[in-house]
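Morning F.,

Quick status update on the modeling queue. The single chain you submitted on Monday has been processed. Sequence for confirmation:
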Amino acid sequence: MPQVRFEHITKTYGQVQVLRDLNLAIDDGDFLVLLGPSGCGKTTLLNLLAGLLDVTDGRITIGERDVTDVDPKDRG
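Structure tokens below.
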């Protein structure tokens, strides 16, 4: 079962769509590398996971817990 899951994640800044319908499952014990050019959404994805940015659309789960709208301090 995935430990961290991004389901249909979309992030927009005004009219600019930075992430569109992103789906990613990271299993417990996996080693993940985010690699890509500047501006492709790597930092945005990590900030969404941390709760530092709001998800425009979609859902983020850690374990079985939906943390999409949970404050960063409560994501544990």
